[in-house]
Amino acid sequence: MRPKWTLPVYGSELWDEVCRVLKWHYRPGHGCVDTINRLRAKHPVARKLGKAFRVQRESLLVRAESRSIEQLWPLIHPKLVTRAPPHATDAPVVLRLDDAEYLHDGRRRINYWSRNNQVSPHRVLVVCAR
Does this model's pTM top 0.90? Predict the structure, then answer.
């Protein structure tokens, strides 16, 4: 049974967790949704597609999933491969939009897990724009 989607309303535990994970990417005066939009716009795949789509808070859903390294590795664009150690052990954050997924946070963790053969399921926070 797949976990249910949760509306990211103020006070939702999953939404609050997404915002805590992404807070290191915030710019002055920006919040969680602004950061999601900025990170998506600079993602290598989104830049190549040239789509200028902005998500709205009211359209977002979030849930936690478990994924193996084989499911996570395809989210690592060649430009995102790194040997730098992870800063945190939080769940990676993925944006699902138009049947595509964009890694917003967690590239160092996924690179680390892959290098160290940590293939067991990892918790991932998936934000979906409807």
Answer: no
